Amino acid sequence: MKYRSLTRLIPAQDTSDGAGVRLRRSLGQSPFTRLDPFLMLDEFSSNDPNDYVAGFPAHPHRGFETVTYMLEGHMLHEDHLGNRGHLRSGGAQWMTAGRGIIHSEMPQQESGHMRGFQLWINLPAAEKMKPASYRDIQAEDLPIADLPQGGRIKVIAGTATLGSTQLAGPIQGLSTEPIYFDIHLPPHAIFEHSIAETHHSFLYAYEGNATVMGGSPTEPTEAILPHRAAGVLSEGNLLKFRAGAEGVQLIWLAGKPLHEPVVQYGPFVMNTREEIEQALHDYQAGQLTG
Ligand code: CO
What we know:
Layout: E1 6-11, E2 13-17, E3 21-25, E4 38-46, E5 56-61, E6 64-72, E7 74-79, E8 84-88, E9 92-96, E10 101-107, E11 114-122, E12 133-137, E13 144-146, E14 152-157, E15 159-162, E16 165-168, E17 179-185, E18 190-194, E19 200-215, E20 220-225, E21 229-233, E22 238-255, E23 263-265, E24 268-270, H1 273-284
Antiparallel strand pairs: 1-21, 2-3, 3-4, 4-11, 5-10, 6-9, 6-11, 7-8, 7-10, 9-12, 13-14, 14-17, 15-16, 17-22, 18-22, 19-20, 19-21, 19-22, 23-24
The protein binds cobalt (II) ion.
Residues 56, 59, 61, 66, 103 line the site of cobalt (II) ion (CO).
């Protein structure tokens, strides 16, 4: 029995992407801040339309998956496959770029709060060139359960176990076996859950903060997970944390590492330089998507 400890903090940095959307990027600020298989985590959160209204006009991806989880707001996704999906408060979108996708993500609001996350998850070499696919997940299709000490858990990927209840998210069966939970706790409440021992895992608190309670029962450790930093966790088969004095709202991610070389050029993530050159060539020749 080993509780995971906090081993590294990657504070979010202000940046912008797309046509000038303001973002806070934690994972993926540089090649040294990835956590295999997770490539990047962006949080967007603003009341000011100037920060988001320009959106993400048509752009390509190849070689990985993008997951958008919307806390508040409304965006329209359109892609070359003819998909049109409305991403609304509390919903998610899981897109497998595979061989190639060209899509846009445009805000459908001119005022109000726009808030959420975009996560990039790598694909194994054997799946990088599979056909693109896309899933729109409405808020009502994400299971939510109350927690014993108050608060609640919402499951986007993987399965949460609460006593004898299994809460299975809509995303299951991927090679990286991701879990993606959104957890809210009231002040000082404790959350505990099992996890695959060697999966790479991190937390990101978007409201309040928490204390990660790691180590073993004989050698406990405690470390603060501050607001707005990716908190990378050690290996271990359990996670336990306590909400701070103002409570906490955080996302918890875990995935099976690929242990494969990563070569990234903007929106293309492959295993070798030659494959990146091929992606650029295919994109310029209008053949990215096959
Ligand atoms: Co995109």
